# Entry
Amino acid sequence: MNLKYYYWYFQSAIPERICDDIVRYGKEQEKETAITGNTNKELKDLSELELKNIQKKRKSDVVWMNDRWIYKEIQPYIHQANANAGWNFEWDWSESCQFTEYKKDQFYDWHCDSYEEPYDQPEDQNTHGKLRKLSMTISLTDPEEYEGGDLEFDFRNQDEAVQPRICKEIRPKGSVIVFPSFVWHRVKPVTKGTRHSLVCWNLGYPFR
# Structure
């Protein structure tokens, strides 16, 4: 699929007090070690070696959130970006939000958020038969409080080498970035301080 825009952004869109509320709420919850989306086991079932291998690709801590007040803040930007960028993807469900904490030397290497096959979860009609279509991430931390941790996108096509582009627009606190879930991206290692973000994946039936 050819894209005119690989991402759409709204700088400093989420009020600082809302960002602080999300961070405070996230810190009050029990964090868990982040794993990659293609891991077929739950965290508790992973061996020490399996976890070590995962952390070569991804190292951070996460908290899951599905509170209505958070969706109320973020979903209008997903709809607006989908229209403004001209993607016009059909979607109808947001997964649980992922609050992520990146401390010094933590990162998430190259990946995309979508899977090859739709969710096969007949017991959950909100997700069954659907794909991740739109991803959203919000910067919750003032850029003066950390170094590194850049969000980068891979804008290559099939015949080109990787050409990462730093998403500078996400640096201001409260900035929202929305992008198709099949676009490859990464978070570079944090070199100083702590970076907090909120991610949400939005589902729809497969592209026709």
Q: What stands out?
A: The chain has a mean pLDDT of 93.
